[in-house]
Amino acid sequence: MTPQQQQTLIDSAIAARGNAYAPYSNFLVGAALLTDNGGVVAGANVENASYGLTLCAERVAAGAAVAAGARGIVAVAVATEGGAAPCGACRQFLNEFGSAMTVLCVDSASGRVTREVLLSELLPESFGPAALGGTRRP
Ligand code: THU
Known about the structure:
Blueprint: H1 3-17, E1 30-35, E2 40-44, H2 57-67, E3 73-80, H3 88-95, E4 102-107, E5 113-118, H4 119-122
Parallel strand pairs: 3-4
Antiparallel strand pairs: 1-2, 1-3, 4-5
InterPro entries: CMP_dCMP_dom, Cyt/Deoxycyt_deaminase, Cyt_deam_tetra, Cytidine_deaminase-like
EC number: 3.5.4.5
Binding site for substrate: 45-51
């Protein structure tokens, strides 16, 4: 990932956060993915009156990336107040598309990266496609 790509990811995550639908928690999250074909795809959290149906920003972004044809993710930027790390469910969901991806936690107010870490460090000994024999459908 080039410095320019990293800055684009950060900017995209912060912009997407502005579209978050989070009337219940008021915790706005934006995520932006760099796919292995060089594309950038963003998402935001989408809450629901039936709380448990809430979609996290990372999973919204990953779903959009797959729908756009991507199958590999190189990096993800997650923008929140304070620069929080992705939740456990999102770590697992992202792992499907690249355990070696770089995770950038971004403080939305300053745009600063609070943490840069590999997904494999956030989700050690993960369960992934290889556990199913590597027989992945397209
Ligand atoms: N949330 C995300 O979008 N991503 C995470 O990794 C953690 C949590 C959202 C879900 C909910 O809308 C709000 O943040 C508070 O949990």
